[in-house]
Amino acid sequence: MNIGLVAVILYNIALLNAQSTRKRPTDSGRETFTDRIRTTLAVSEAEDEQLENECPQPDGFFADATQCDKYYECSNGKITEKLCPDGMVFNDFSIAHEKCDLPLNIDCSQRPALQEPKPAEHCRRQNGYFAHEDEGVCDKFYFCVDGKFNAITCPAGLVYNEKTGICTWPDEAKKNGCTSQDVFKFRCPKVTTEIAQQHPRYADSEDCQFFYVCVNGETPRRNGCKMGQVFNEASGKCDWPRNVPECVEWYKGILTDEQLEDLENPKPKQPSTKKKSNRPTTTRRTFIPEEE
Prior knowledge:
Layout: H1 3-21, H2 33-53, E1 60-63, E2 70-75, E3 78-83, E4 89-90, E5 100-101, E6 128-131, E7 140-145, E8 148-153, E9 159-161, E10 166-168, H3 170-173, H4 180-184, H5 193-196, E11 201-203, E12 210-215, E13 219-224, E14 230-232, E15 237-239, H6 257-264
Antiparallel strand pairs: 1-2, 2-3, 4-5, 6-7, 7-8, 9-10, 11-12, 12-13, 14-15
């Protein structure tokens, strides 16, 4: 007999024997629909029990470990997941207080995840402070509450600082396109180290009342003199217009000569001549007749 044929026959016999030794599952070994329901309920109860056990204390408010605007309320050991309004994050300063705050006031570096934003006009999120959409606009920003915005403009010489949410000097804000040179269109002249340490001052070529202070001789900051005065570059101080020839007419049409004189030489205040009454103060009472 052919050896190859014999090998094939022996292999088939072995395969049939192996199949015959396998046991078919009985009905008692099969998982019924009822069994599945019971298993699901048991898992659900176990998860609920696990959630209850996650409360660090029976009562209080606790921050989520990874998401800054998510937190949990524990009441009698029962835990409830909660979410701050869009744009706000949970302030975990005290477990006794449920407080959502602005991200500017909270360190979220250890739990940086946030909910999906719900943007509105000029508002990247429903709540918070947001820079102007145009990166070239440095001194304007928006304060948003429930998706409604309020446009705010910084005082002259300051720009919006996204890190602090307030207006600061351009060199402190460190915003692209909003450096001191970009905002003021002024660059500090090169000076020696000795002069740089004195923070030299330079007149604003377009406004006699203002001047630039070059911090460490490099970073310009715009300052101004009080009303009625101008900057005297020769002395490096604020002075009266009559002492600065190029600015002697600066307040013409704004202040009269008399007003400038009063600002430079204010008159002493006259003491009040009104006599103070020594009579005690009484409260007038209104008589209301009783109804008959």
